Amino acid sequence: MIVTTTADAPHSTVLTLLDAASDLGLSARTLPNDRGGSVVGVDGSLPHDVLGLPGIDRVLTSHRPYMLASSEHRTRSIVRVGHVDIGGDRPVLMAGPCVVEGRDEIIEAARAVKAAGAEILRGGAFKPRTSPYAFQGLGEEGLRHLAVAREVTGLPVVTEVLEPDQVGMVAEYADMLQIGSRNMANFPLLRRVGQTNRPVLLKRGFSATVEEWLMSAEYILAGGNAQVVLCERGIRGFDPAVRFSLDLNAVPLVKELSHLPIVVDPSHGTGRRSLVHRMALAGLAAGADGLIVEVHPNPATARCDAAQTITPADLGRIHRQGMAVHAAIAEASADIFELDDVLLTA
Ligand code: PEP
Ligand code: MN
């Protein structure tokens, strides 16, 4: 059950709802909603007398296991990262190298991606490598370099956090915490980032269903952190011709099921530099709120994920054409809505 309250609802209403749920042995969680009130997700049904409390706006029977993330009570959320809004009317480009390689290197990359249209800098300091022998990132030193790159360029920074115990430290440097594909179902980590006030980029596990992914988002929301952006980064298919298969169905599907913004990662989603450009545009055509792309001033020398890394010039083309694709889609959607209006009033 989902209950929403109005902006002027007495504080006691939400507390009474939570108490009533607890008395019945039900789990309940609350978050602020977009109209100044609250949304309360209850894992079960509350009695009628409680639902008549002052300030209760809507009572919805939800058949979805993710109540706070559900589109049933809210159709769209905007997540602010530094000064950048994700989920608004304009798609946002996040870009940078797979891994932070050094101070000068990340500053150079940050300047280059900014000039190409990126609004958020990406770069891993703690890397979840498949091989224990592969470069694992610079750790806290990498975080310090990212902070310098932010200072130089003004770009907010997104970087991965691998372990619950690292969350405090990474949150001190980063504007947005990335949960990687391999950690999507790391529930202690999700709980921990749910307790921070930092926005979270939640990548889809490469073998996770859309529902499992939304349940992971629900962990973060249930912890009290409403600022979650989903990232479709490809799932494991049967064809070794590509590293992963970018599941673009997931983009409009997630838009139907959830109010959370979603971005697309065409770099990990393909594993091949030659496919990144078109799949980036396809992601925006599918309705994504942005892209996260691996970019390096000299991709051939990138220390991690070189085969899928593109140049700043390539990113500039994605930016130009991506904005045009987005504008065309926005126009087409407006046409569809007008058509619906006509049909409804006919
Ligand atoms: C990354 O963004 O560099 C990364 C490791 O991504 P994923 O978790 O999607 O594999
Ligand atoms: Mn990578």
What does this protein structure show overall?
- It contains 10 helices and 14 strands.
- The chain has an 8-stranded parallel sheet. A 4-stranded antiparallel sheet has the order 2-3-1-4, covered by helices on one side.
- α3 crosses α4, α6 crosses α7 and α9 packs parallel to α10.
- It is 37% helix and 17% strand.
- It is α/β, with parallel strands linked by helices and 346 residues long.
- Manganese (II) ion (MN) binds next to loops.
Secondary structure elements and their pairing?
Elements: E1 2-5, H1 11-23, E2 28-32, E3 38-42, H2 48-51, E4 56-60, E5 79-81, E6 84-86, E7 92-96, H3 103-115, E8 120-122, H4 140-153, E9 157-160, H5 167-173, E10 176-179, H6 187-194, E11 200-203, H7 210-222, E12 228-232, H8 250-257, E13 262-264, H9 273-285, E14 290-294, H10 312-345
Parallel strand pairs: 7-8, 7-14, 8-9, 9-10, 10-11, 11-12, 12-13
Antiparallel strand pairs: 1-3, 1-4, 2-3, 5-6
Helix pairs in contact: 3-4, 6-7, 9-10
